[in-house]
Amino acid sequence: MSTAKMIGFTLVILTLSACKKPTENIKIILDTDVIKNTAMINVTDAQTGNSAPSNATITITGDQADDIYELSGEKDIKLNNGMVTIGLRPGVAPTIDKPISITVKINASGYNEQTKQITFTTAQKQQVVNIAITKTGTTAPPIVIPPPPVYNNTTLTFVGKCPNRTDLEIRPSVYVYFKKTGAAGAFQYLGYMEKGKITTNLLALNETYDFQIVYGGATYKTSQKIEQTSYNLTIDMPEACKF
Length: 243
Fold this sequence. Notes:
This protein is mainly beta. The protein is about 0% helix and about 45% strand. It is globular and about 50 Å long.
């Protein structure tokens, strides 16, 4: 496993049953909660609310920019559908007296450059940073997207799957986005999933939703109709399995 991937994963090896061979019936769990202080950056078009264009780039500067990694442990940080999760590498953490700040710069062809400071503190392990960029020369006001309605709680448990490796499972600790299947517009923030589990009150009964996560420079999606209070879902994560 590469150094970068070791930053992004904790390996938990579980023996499922007694076996004849040492490697038989062994389940390897890849836990992604190694990077503790994280920020989900969500870049959108200010006038439409849709994801930033595919040519949008992100640059990180500041005294501790070298300590910033993508959630999977990659140093090469890129936007995917306008999104990326960044964080402080293991061994680096803010203190009460010394928070850690960086500057994020977003550029896209035909848009004005946008910069924003992100501060990591001891009080907030996860944060969502929304950055809206405006087209060059536009005078239209930015769109205001109302918050989603609230319903009863639903618990979702996600398990990441690797192609051709039935002995591997991923327990993602990531930011989750959602929207009704077939609906127009951008995905909205559902919440932070820790070790594959999230409880939310933003899902309506008898509606079908698409769920989206971004990890390792790739976007992963799955869908589910909500008819009960809890679900176990699988999500294919092929790029996360390359180590």
